[in-house]
Amino acid sequence: MRLASLPASLDSFSTARLDAERLTEDHWDDLRRMDQDEWFMAELGGVRDEAGTRAYLERNLAHWAARGFGLWMLRDRDTGAVIGRALLRHLAVDGVDEVETGYGFLPDLWGRGLATEIARACVHIGRERLGLESVVGITLPTNAASQRVMRKAGLHYERDIVHAGLPHLLFRTG
Description:
By secondary structure, the chain is α+β, with helices and mostly antiparallel strands. The protein has a single domain, classed as 3-Layer(aba) Sandwich (Aminopeptidase). The chain is 32% helix and 33% strand. The chain has five helices and eight strands. The protein has helices at 28-35, 38-41, 50-67, 114-129, 144-152; strands spanning 12-14, 18-22, 71-76, 82-93, 96-105, 136-139, 155-163, 166-173. The strands form two sheets. It has a five-stranded antiparallel β-sheet. Strands 6-8-7 form a three-stranded antiparallel β-sheet, covered by helices on one side. A hairpin with a 2-residue loop joins strand 7 (155-163) and strand 8. Helix 1 crosses helix 3 (50-67). It is globular, with a radius of gyration of 15 Å.
């Protein structure tokens, strides 16, 4: 995978309704709140205990340190409240290094088009600012809502894969 030279900073960006900020240790409480929510985590591997959240935080902070991009915490532009998270992150797919986009919002915000808004922004950043040839997304076969979001964001179903021991669908741009 070829990456163009990285822009000076991807620490933050905004969409029409969201402000995205680079993950930091200060987001611990927000991550715990999300990781403990059964609905939020239903399609993301299930509720995490404190050690699971700590490992997730450390893994994503390390990605930022190594790559200059990664997981962003998402704030509602009107209220400033943290309402979700999104990412561009390296992911091995069948032994191939890919960059995936992902997103998650607190359940009371589902159905408002926020996932599509942030997924489109992440795809744009991946393609235009990072110079990626493609961006991938994965989802469980049962997650029809996420599949719709990926299609709206310009990703197309490519094939079935196994990720984390579970069947997933792989979507790709271009």
